[in-house]
Structure formats: structure tokens, C-alpha cells
Amino acid sequence: MGEKWLIQLNELEEICLDAYESSKIYKKRMKRWHDKFINKRELWEGDLVLLFTSILKIFLGKLHCQWSGPFKVLKVDLYRAIEVGAEATLAFSR
């Protein structure tokens, strides 16, 4: 009786490990598929960027988001961290 129980326990553990492995493979595939659609963009000093601000408001049950800016990139760090300055003014000519 004890041997049969140990065999069933080992089989259950193998099933769990297989499920874990297949889930890892699925996640890798989905990440690769998702990353394929992301546009890689280099930012340089002097570029103008928009700042995304997301605010969750319980009122009306909606997620309100807004873009502010444009801001001027002052410094680009070695690890792609950027420092932005004050809001830049745009002059449009017709």
C-alpha cells in the first residue's frame, strides 16, 4: 500500500514539473511575440519627449490617462535612464 502511494506521488510530481516546464516555454514564446511589435527607439540629448501620466480615479470607474509635455531630454544615462528638463515650448510656423 505504501509503495503504491509513493509511485502515485512521484507521478503527480512529474505531471506538475511537466506543466511548469510547458508554462515556461509558453511564456517565452509569448514574450518573443510581444517584443516583436515594440519599436526600439534611441533618445538623444535635445530630443523632445512626452510624459505619460496614468491616474486611476474611482469616480465613474474609468482609468484616466494623459500625456504632458513636450519635455526636452537633458541627459541620457549609460543604462538608458533619461533626465528631462522643463516643459519646452513649440513654435509652429505656417
Written description of the protein model:
The structure is a single chain. This protein is of the alpha+beta class. It has two domains: 40 residues; 40 residues, no CATH class. Helix content is 36%, strand content 31%. The chain has one helix and three strands, in the order αβββ. It has a three-stranded antiparallel beta sheet with strand order 1-2-3, with no helix packed on it. A hairpin with a 6-residue loop joins β1 and β2.
Task: For this entry, give a set of tags.
single chain, 94 residues, alpha+beta, three-stranded antiparallel sheet, 1 helix, elongated
Topology at a glance:
Blueprint: H1 2-35, E1 48-56, E2 63-76, E3 82-87
Antiparallel strand pairs: 1-2, 2-3
Domain count: 2
Strand order of the largest sheet: 1-2-3
Structural class: alpha+beta
Main sheet properties? 3 strands, antiparallel
Mean of residue pLDDT?
A: 82
Distance between the termini: 89 Å
Strand content: 25-35%
Radius of gyration: 25 Å
The helix content is 25-40%
Element-level helix/strand string? HEEE
Q: How many helical elements? A: 1
Brief account:
The chain has 94 residues and is α+β, with helices and mostly antiparallel strands. Helix content is 36%, strand content 31%.
